[in-house]
Amino acid sequence: MHKTQFSPIGFVAGLVVCLMAAPGFAGDLGAQVSGKGRIGAPTTESRSSGCPQNADGTFCWMSPDIGVAWASGYTGSGVSVTVVDDFAGGIEDFGDLGHGPKWRQRGKWIAQAARMVAPGAKTVELDYFTPVPLTLEDRLNVINLSYTLEQPVSGYPLEQSIVDAARAGAAVFTKAAGNESVAVGTPTERYIDFLALELTGTQSTIFVGALEHNGTPENKAKLASYSNYAGSDSEVQNNFLTVGLESDKIGLSGTSVAAPIVAGYAAIVGSKFTSATPTQITNQLLDTARTDTLVNYNPEIYGRGEASLSRALAPASIR
């Protein structure tokens, strides 16, 4: 089977070779395997630039909104975050999310990012070569997909069950947009992401693109040069979010790393609105995205805008 992984840019050199043989990530952490794979490829650097921890417990690459959410008691508790990725292969690379430079499997980096954003959530690691359907827990489920599937979904029980669950709104799905600098779902010379095509138009999927940094009205951000963008398809635009990725600080880049950040946001929002459905959590993140923090906002590039955890958590209740 052929799955391709998206890799963090800081990992790209080493990961790109390995990830090209496994499912792909939608980020710079790129890899591909027979059937499943590439959504991005990491760039490898000789060392990480270091990522100091802030006084509120957050790390250098995180939006300040995360610390505010934690201080308010919203850490993802009561929510299950499942990271579907490569946890069995020997793909390792170098990065630093705040606990010091390490070599890890690609899937371990993705899971760590989600776990660090939403430390109160239950994090489940699911290898994407598992030939069985997805199992959901009896709670709000968030499923992160930082890879591509380069063959029709119907041939893969896990991915078919993922698409079926997304169509039913059974979980929040965060899907790395990809790292080919094209519109989501666009065929390239190397592959077609059948998983992205099948998830387009489903009610609880969020496609995630990467910004060069977390934006503010005073220091607007633009889409990272490698990131796929929303494109002209309104169904993609309506379910496309971006999030900042401080690649120069963590030695990682790619939409495969951006996606688990939004997965963590979904878990945090779910820990406040405990009776909300997956579709309501998805829509809350999409509907509260910011456009004033982006350079020359255009829905064909940024979709709904930059994810804003503070705005998503602001109301007393959601519908």
Automatic annotation (TrEMBL):
Keyword Amino-acid biosynthesis: no
SUPFAM superfamilies in the record: Subtilisin-like
InterPro entries reported in the protein's UniProt record: Peptidase_S8/S53_dom, Peptidase_S8/S53_dom_sf, Peptidase_S8_Ser-AS, Peptidase_S8_subtilisin-rel
Tree of life domain: Bacteria
Sequence ranges assigned to domain Peptidase S8/S53 in this UniProt record: 111-305
Keywords: Hydrolase, Protease, Serine protease, Signal
Record's signal peptide: 1-26
Family: Belongs to the peptidase S8 family.
Protein name: S8/S53 family peptidase
